[in-house]
Fold each of these.
Amino acid sequence: MSTRSATQTQVSRPSDFLTGIGLLGRGFGMYARNPGLLLLGILPALIAFVVLVGAFVVLVYFIGPEARALTWFAGSWSAQERDLIRALAEVAILVGFIFLAVLSYTALALAIGDPFYERISQRVEARYGATAAGVNLPWWKELVRSVGEAIRLAVFSAAVAVLVFLLGLIPVIGQVGAAVLGGLVGGWALAVELTGIPFARRGVRLRERRRMLRRYRWLSLGFGVAVFGCFLIPFGAILVMPAAVAGATLLTRRVYGQPV
């Protein structure tokens, strides 16, 4: 099926948000029935998790000086006002870091475990039928592709993280707005990241992948937000990652109108 026909077969509907969540659930079901999928995906996910936990510990250790550096303009304020803006800055730093960490975790895990996650995705494809057009690249080319796309997505994520930080400086409403924005944008970015492997198998790169997923924005958001929420659960990302790769493959097949 061509890219054009695949993206014009269905109009995105808000109800597809729940269907997207269900794709992650089906990903869990698939690797629950195939424990080997879990074993393939858990090691790179664990390595990425340890790296980011280390970064979080460093962040928390230096969060006081970081908050003071970012709120330099409050140096002449009263002690009460200065303490308030610095406390808000600390919260905003943590919210921004969590947002970046979730997206960086996915990119890092995919880069470390690209051959493993490729096998998981291939098993899902084999269960429901071959792809419309297979493009098999050497593992090192796939690694270069995934790292390059991860860098581009990281730049986008960093820009959004700055906005999340600034929102977090607004008392109460800002924290809620930052959480909602982070969840929606983070969910979208995760959907784009996780579908990289099955889309690359079809010869589709980042720009075209984004365009195709936008045609199914509610489906993609439902899946991505569900993954984002699971990644916020302590240690949840390690167990969710293989299911997310399987679910992303199902999402890709839905976009292409292939049986799932």
Note: Residues 1-9 have pLDDT under 50 and may be disordered.
Amino acid sequence: MTAKPTKEELGLYSLLPEEFVGARNELAKELSKSGKKPQADRVQKLVKPTVPAWAVNRAAAADPDAAGELLRSGQRLAKAQRGAGATGAGDALREAMSAQQDAIESLMSAVATALEDRGHASPANLDRARDTLRALATDEDLRREFEQGRIARDREPVGFGSAPEPQRRGRGAADAASEAAEHDPRAAARARQAAERTHAAAAKRAERARAKLRKAEEAVERARSRLRDAEGARDEAERELEAAESAERDAERSLA
């Protein structure tokens, strides 16, 4: 039976990817010195998270409500799949899949923020993070890692968790809402809500970027002001040196 991760081990996964290996090695060294060789060996084998996996861990910690809703939607989807043969099960399954898609897109806002903050918001990283979230519905080990915030590698969705979601592969939220409306008004409403959440997250990121730009511009202006002051002080010092050297020359002439 695999040992339950300790608080120190779980703490490694809250670090930035580039900090993981150094912190892991240091923790293993401390455990070894303390006589905890088995735990030290286990820590030394911990794998550095991929960037998408790290972003999923960070998003779950940043938005626990969205993370909890995603887990619950996965459970509902699994239940709907188990009852797929019953009368009316098709509608229940479609609704469960739609709810899971909404939950995924809600948490993807936090994933995108984490990736953008570290300069890793590429389409490939976003897709891999989204696939990992979709895989939660059918992967019990992944769900456990997700709950503990220690996902280390990307996953591919399998089975009923692999249905395409509304905003994937270049389709916009408006297209998703239009398509959903043709089949289910409630699905259209959920698609619109997902689009609104995505827009709100984008607006927040834009505002943060504007705030960073303002701070940078203020810092540049302060630096320019300091430079002007320094140049003024330099000019004054040069004038004082010139006057002093002139006085020195006059004094030398008077002694001759």
Note: The first helix runs from residue 7 to 12.
Amino acid sequence: MTPSPPRVLLFTGKGGVGKSTVAAGTACLAADRGLRTLVLSTDAAHSLADAFGVDRPGPDPTPVGECLHLQQVDAQRRFEDSWSEISRYLRSVLDAGGVDPVTAEELTVLPGAEEVMALLELRLQVLTGDWDVVVVDCAPTAETLRLLALPEALAWYMDRVFPMERRVVRALSPVLSRAAGVPMPEDGVFDAVQRLHDELDEVRSLLAGPRSSVRLVMTPENVVLAEARRSLTTLSLFGYRVDGAVVNRVFPDAGADAWRARWVAAQAEVLARVRQSFAELPLWRSAYRDDEPVGRPALTALAEELYAGSDALADPAGAEPLRFAREGRVTTLRLSLPLVERSEVDLTRHGDDLAVTVAAYRRLLTLPPALARHSVTGARVVDGELQVRFEETTA
């Protein structure tokens, strides 16, 4: 019997809003229930050890209390495991072009490698079956959004372009090598790319699955709120569930302190916009504390206050972010897109692909084969959901 996947919770937000502290506190709650809990960092800053008040752990899960393990991924080790074959080939190409070895080594490092390798490590940890709950302290929002968009973007390339490139290189490798004066990739390189793609595809399936969700952490400031709103829209665009938002460092009542009264008033205005923006989601608040929560007892106390009266580990509720509904000759694609108007969405169809663009982010959706003979006959945004109408064309 295959064990059920663990509950996976990802925390992200603008840098400095306290997401590492909230992630660590949530992990402490899970461990206090007796659940086998791993809290893992994909953030290059690696603040989790500081939050727990422990020395920087090794590359493998390290116990930080009963039922609780901490891991800060060794990106270099995972990089060597997953990228070495490709890196060696790229260095040989640069060497043939006269690039010195030190520069070639730097040029073959995958941009964002540390975050990508952390995702691969997350996959490995889930596959072990050792954990009931995995809490992920993600990089700041922009890096997280780029990272979570990567598996699907790579999948499109692997399905549409990669097979053709592989066939061409196999057929023309002797000619191209002589003409270009550089080595052509061998099967091992293509196999390594395929393996990396397959692993990232598993990561996407895991993170878009019914037991995984993202929580947005923010402070009651207008700039931070604006970024959190964009994050909600973009995460939904790529099919990831957002199951709640945390507002951190909220000032308590002002009392007689005039300086604090101005802060309380300013935060109250932002909090009203937060409630409006995230009206469909659970919203948790954490008061500004007079000391920094460091260590498991303090982190647990913060999380108990934050989630009071709610289940911090409940599976995400609601419909799938992307789904299709058929009625007669009409099929409707429904994609969750909160906080946008129809004028902000651009749609383009290329054969079996539907490109959905919102602001700077674009998602390529490969349509089911059943829609091959359907034409797009309309699109609208209703109550935070993009609805695209496909109608079957008569022969």
Note: Residues 175-181 have pLDDT under 50 and may be disordered.
